[in-house]
Design brief:
Blueprint lengths: L2 H12 L5 H11 L5 H8 L3 H22 L1 H25 L2 H19 L1
Helix pairs in contact: 1-4, 2-4, 3-4, 5-6
Length: 116
């Protein structure tokens, strides 16, 4: 996954667990694509300070993901939902009942993902 996209997803899931200061700087970098120099000037801190805070936030967010796996489950669920959509389109064309059985299996996988 592209780094910025991953950072955005991690922030969506775990950003509320950062301090307000961390959130502001992380949003400036990841969501608003400001440069470290721009943020440093705006915040009245050094560019290195912004860089260090960004790295610390990345580490914190990745740590939450290692423990909770919410982004991983989200991505897996999206993939399974796409598969269900494809299978239902195939079923509409073919009326092949084995496709319904596969859809049932996939929905069971999604339920299991949400249970853990």
């Amino acid at each position: 996954m592209e780094k910025i996209a991953r950072q955005g997803l991690l922030y969506d899931f775990y950003g509320a667990l950062l301090t307000e200061h961390q959130r502001n700087i992380y949003e400036d970098v990841v969501l608003y694509d400001l440069s470290l120099s721009e943020i440093a000037q705006e915040q009245g801190i050094s560019r290195q300070g912004v860089h260090d805070l960004l790295k610390r936030c990345d580490k914190i967010l990745e740590g939450y993901e290692e423990k909770l796996h919410l982004v991983e489950k989200f991505e897996k669920t999206k993939g399974l939902a796409r598969e269900i959509r494809n299978l239902t389109a195939q079923f509409a064309d073919t009326k092949d009942m084995s496709l319904i059985h596969r859809i049932e299996e996939i929905s069971g996988e999604i339920i299991e993902l949400e249970a853990h």
